[in-house]
Design brief:
Length: about 140
């Protein structure tokens, strides 16, 4: 298998893992709290869980990144998070849009999955260029 194909398959698998972590965390959050703002709170919790899972997988297995120090890793995670802001808008737009249009938990999650898929493709290119770039030798 070509290395770029292997990379794409690994990235897709990791995106699925992070998506499952995100949606799973949302579902747990909504089950734990169903009061005012429960949907928004669950999406924020899921986004945070998905972000950390995806960062850990991407830095190790996709970009083979090794931080020089805790401070370096913290700066890298902050940059990774910043690059994720635009893609989070895509994800949240789809999830909240589906929630508004269909008003069911299943359709909200479907919107979230679609938004995450679009966002992860965009995020790969942002991360490759701005977060985990390597200097030419």
């Amino acid at each position: 298998m070509f290395s770029s194909t292997k990379l794409a398959v690994k990235y897709a698998i990791f995106a699925l893992i992070a998506t499952a972590a995100n949606i799973g965390a949302q579902d747990l959050a909504v089950r734990a709290y169903s009061g005012t703002g429960a949907i928004v709170a669950s999406v924020v919790v899921g986004t945070g869980v998905g972000l950390v899972v995806k960062y850990l997988l991407d830095k190790r297995y996709i970009f083979r990144f090794r931080a020089a120090s805790v401070a370096h890793d913290t700066r890298t995670f902050a940059l990774y998070t910043t690059m994720g802001l635009a893609t989070t808008v895509i994800f949240w737009g789809f999830e909240f849009g589906f929630h508004h249009l269909f008003a069911t938990r299943e359709m909200r999650y479907l919107g979230g999955v679609i938004g995450l898929a679009i966002g992860y493709v965009s995020k790969y290119y942002l991360d490759k260029r701005y977060v985990f770039h390597t200097e030419p030798s």
